[in-house]
Amino acid sequence: MTENEIIRKIKDISIDTDHRPSFIAKYILQNLMIVPEITIKEMAECTYTSIATINRFTKYLNLDGYKELIHIIKYFNHNLAGEESIT
């Protein structure tokens, strides 16, 4: 999956209130710029969940773990910043 597909999947999860970790997805989308700077423990505290829940969320996205999620978000932010500077 590309980083855009992952972000799109996170957006879909955030909209689906029946999905249990939708609040994690909402937090990620609302804080795209700061999420790459926080640890998995801080993410768990911010979303009122456990580290295991964050790991399950990343597995649901078919990622290897939290670090891969962070790399994808950093790459997405980098591309987004590049597009803004072009326009």
| CATH-scheme architecture | Orthogonal Bundle
CATH superfamily, by name, is Winged helix-like DNA-binding domain superfamily/Winged helix DNA-binding domain
Query: How many whole angstroms does the radius of gyration measure?
Result: 13 Å
Give the strand content: under 5%
Structurally, how many domains make up the residues? 1
Number of strands: 0
Show unreliable segments. Answer: none
Instruction: Return the string of H and E elements.
Output: HHHHH
Nearest-integer average pLDDT: 88
**Counting H and I runs of at least 4 residues, what is the number of helices?**
5
Indicate the structural class. mainly alpha
Largest sheet: none
**CATH C-level name:** Mainly Alpha
| CATH structural fold name | Arc Repressor Mutant, subunit A
- Outline, from the CA principal axes? globular
How are the secondary structure elements laid out?
Elements: H1 3-15, H2 22-30, H3 40-46, H4 51-60, H5 66-86
Helix pairs in contact: 1-2, 1-5
Structure in words:
GO terms for molecular function: DNA-binding transcription factor activity. Residues 4-80 form the HTH rpiR-type domain. This is GntR family transcriptional regulator. InterPro entries: Homeodomain-like_sf, HTH_RpiR, WH-like_DNA-bd_sf. This protein is mainly α and 87 residues long. It has a single domain (3-85), classed as Winged helix-like DNA-binding domain superfamily/Winged helix DNA-binding domain (Arc Repressor Mutant, subunit A). Helices cover 69% and strands 0% of the residues. The chain contains five helices and no strands. The mean pLDDT is 88.
